[in-house]
Structures are given as C-alpha cells and as structure tokens.
Amino acid sequence: MRKQKAWELELDVLKKGMPVILSEEEQTWDFSFKIEEVMNISIAQRWESHVPGSGAEEHVIIAAMQAMHNMGYDVSEAEQLMDEGLAAYAAGDCGRMAALYSKVLYRLSGAPKDESHPYWRYTVYHSYEQYRQAVSFTKYDYDMDSEEYLRRTHLGWLAQICAGAVGTAIEGYCTDNIRKVFGEIYDYPRTPNTFNDDITYELAFLKALEKCGKDMTSCDIAEQWVELIPTGWTAEDIALKNLQLGIFPPQSGYLNNPYREWIGAQMRGAVCGMIAPGDPERAARYAYMDAVVSHHNNGVMGEIFNAVLVSLSYVKSNIREMVTEAAAAIPQDCEYYAVIQYALDVCRSSGDWESAWRQCEERFKTYNWIHAYPNAAAEIIALWFGSSFDEMIHIIAMEGYDVDCNAAQIATAYAIWEGKPLDERWSAPIGDKLETYMRGIRELSICELSQYTCALARANKE
Fold first, then answer.
1. Do residues 371 and 71 make contact, with C-beta atoms less than 8 angstroms apart?
2. Does residue 75 sit in helix, strand or coil?
3. Is 72 helix (H, G, I), strand (E, B) or coil?
C-alpha cells in the first residue's frame, strides 16, 4: 500500500473541513496570555535568578559574556548592554529584557576572536576521531557478570544521589561564606531530597542505550533528551532549543551556545563509567558521544574525565593513581589538561586541601562558578585529600562552586572504589527512592536503577 504524501494528507484535511461558527468565548486567544506569563518568568530569570536548591544569585546572560571571554572572544560589544538589561529587570520591563537578551546573544555569536587570549594557544578538539588520536588507554579485566559489579554500581548510584543532595543546598557559594553559615560540613546541610536536574541527562543516556544498543549515536541520545526532558538551564537549555528546531549534534552543543565549556557535560560522566567498568576507552567514547549534545571542546573533555574516573574506580587500588590515570585520558595540548594538571601539581605541593584550593580559587577566578575548570580542580583536590568518604564529602562541600555536580560525580567514583556501605546518616534519609521531573519518570527505585544499568552494560559489553 502506497504511503500517503504529506501534501496529500494536508489537502485531505482542507477538502474535508466544514466551516463552523464559534462562540465569542471560543474565539479568544487566552492561551497566548498563559504563554506570555511563562515567557516573562523565563526571560526575567536570564537577567537575574536564584538557584532552586540553594538560593544563590546568578545572572545567566551576563555569565554568557564571561564564558565567551574565557573562550578567547572580545565581548566588549555585548558588555555594553549589561547596565540597560539590569535596569530593565529592576523596572520589570519584560519586553525590553527579551529584546536585550536576544541582542546580547547576537553580539556574542558575532564576537571577534581575541588573538592574544591564552585560549588560542591550545588545540581545539572538534571530533572524537581527533580526540582519540591524541590519547591512549589501558583496558582492565573486570567481571561484569558478577554480583560484585551490581553491588558496587548500586553503591555508586546511591552515593551520587546522596552527595548531590548535600551539594544542592550550597551550590553557588564560596568557601568563606559557606563556613560562615554552616561551619564545617560533615552532614546534610538541610533535610535532603533527590530532585536534581543533573541526573536526568544520565537517565536519558541509559534510555538511548536501551533503545539503540551498540549502534547508539549522539543523535539517539539527543532524541531522548527531547522526548524525556522538558526544560534545561544554560548549555542544556540552548541545546534543547536547538534540538527542538531540528539542529542535532554536534551543532546542537555548539551553535549559539556560550555555555558550551561549562559543567553541564562534566556533571553527567559517571554513568558512562558505570556502563564501562575497567574499560576507560569505551567510557570516554560514550562520554564524547553524550557530551556533544550540549557542549564542545573543553566542555566535552570534562565529561570524558569523569567517565574515565568512574570506569577506573572499579579496578584501581590507589585513588591518587586513579585520578592521575583519568587525567591522562585528556590530550596534553588542550586547555582542560592544563587545568587538571595545575590542580594535580598544587595537590602534590600542598599539605592540605584548603591551601591547594585557595591556589585554584585564585587561578580560576575569572571563570563562572558553573564553568568546568574550577569545578574540575575542586574534584581533584577532594579526591586527593579525601582520606575517607566522609572527609571527601567535607572537602567538596567546603570548596563551594557547583557543589552538587562535583560531589555527585566524585562520590560515585569514591564509593565504587572503596566498596563499603555508606554510613546510614547519608543513606537512611534517601532510602531507595529517586524523584525526577522527567516525562514518564517521576519516581524510580535506586536498586532498580542499578540493576538496569548493569543489565545494559552486560548487553552492550565489548
């Protein structure tokens, strides 16, 4: 039977349609007022907002200027619009805020390179093939059919969810102010919950792997984003909008996306490592595939680093060796490598976590608290000096910045590596329930998530 053409279907609708007389109420455009209300909230949040979990103040569109400057562009034209945009926010002028938001993005998309910026001293990585030629990997034997694999993967997921709940309460603040309010953090700063936008992208990755198996591509992951994730923030927000317009990876992660080297890919690498225990090359390949949906170049390297870290956590006996080997999965001529190498160097030369962190805090002060760089340094320091799970959580919490993303990723690696049950003060308040805002996945069991992860890994092992 011949498949109907699009034009034929639409012509049928036109020919069959019979005019009707609508009542006055039926002719209204009330829906437009509802859309306007939502859009006004959304556009105002671009000029000033407060992080849902912690209340930290942020200015997302101004941070876009900061991000483009970090990537070696002259953003002075866009910066000229800052005062007017903030004044429009103060006046509640949503129309003007919307116009200026678009104008800023337009100026950023056409911003000229600052050839003197240190960013351009490093290689820019545009493809997986280019990346793969620059690095080498060691594959380790690991029994994925064992009960131990499931046990450690469950530990990893539970630790990720607990640590994310710790960080959600304090993200967006710096060490000194966290200490002033909370003192030294060794427990949940408040009653925890499991709502966190980070994990939604890991679940979408698993759904794509379930659907497509070994043939999975970045476009398959992107399709699951659009199907399952109703909204995002910064890099993921722009990527979702690109995808909804039919702009698929890798363009979805690059086009008009000033946040493409922020933490949004780095925050979801752990799942790629759990799918590929002891196989860092495969973990890196999955991470690259996932990251380019929303990120580019150094933003992609962040996800690779965390994916390899978690992959190695199943097989390495020394955590500092694990961190060092994960760093070696990053090409030495890219800027991300320079960042993590600096963090490793200050760890080796410092006697404690705080002296190391203060150096990194100063070194990366021009970067936003959501950028991949300072947060990668925070991860390395917490792993290097974290003599126990509790101490690791203490350090990553006290460092501040994007704490939930950082804590969740390294807690996954640490718990898998250590292999010990979490203290009940972490696990008991969480139990076995994960809540999300995803379409069709409002709630799931952490035990079942762990079984699902292992089953997918076994079905797709190489």
1. no
2. coil
3. coil
CA distances from 220 to 143, 210, 285 (A): 28, 11, 15
Least confident piece of the model among 149-153, 360-364, 442-446: 442-446
> How far apart, in whole angstroms, are the C-alpha atoms of residue 239 and residue 19?
41
Q: Can you tell me the distance from the alpha carbon of 191 to that of 218, in angstroms, rounded to the nearest whole number?
A: 37
Instruction: Find residue 371's DSSP bridge partners.
Output: 262
| Helix or strand holding residue 173 (H, E) | strand 173-174
The residue type found at 236 is E
DSSP 93-155: -HHHHHHHHHHHHHHHHTPPB-TTSGGGGSPPP-SHHHHHTT---------TTSHHHHHHHHH
Distances (CA, A) of 42 to 215, 230, 456: 37, 14, 37
Report the alpha-carbon distance of residue 298 to residue 261 in Å, rounded.
Answer: 6
The pTM (predicted TM-score) of the whole model is: 0.95
Considering only CA atoms, which of 142, 153, 271 is closest in space to residue 210?
271
Selection from 316, 309, 377, 387 nearest residue 347 by Cα: 377
Lookup result for tokens 């930290």: 56
Q: Which residues contact 375 (CB under 8 A, 6 or more apart)?
A: 263, 266, 369, 401, 402, 405, 406
Q: How far is CA 144 from CA 154, 245, 263, 277, 414, in A?
A: 13, 40, 30, 8, 19
Nearest CA to 149 out of 414, 419, 433, 412 is that of 419
- Cβ count near 112 (within 10 Å): 10
- Report the distance separating Cα 14 and Cα 214, nearest Å: 44
The 10s digit of each residue's pLDDT in 268-293 is 999 999 999 999 999 999 999 999 99
Half-sphere exposure of 85 (CA within 13 A, CB side): 24
Q: Which two tokens stand for residue 335?
A: 């800027």
pLDDT tens-digit series, residues 19-59: 988 776 655 667 777 888 888 889 999 999 999 889 999 99
CA 351 to CA 344: how far, in whole Å?
13
Could you tell me which residues come within 8 angstroms of residue 10 by beta carbon, excluding any fewer than 6 positions away?
none
Q: How far, in Å, are 86, 343, 365, 373, 383 from residue 362 at the CA level? A: 27, 12, 5, 12, 20
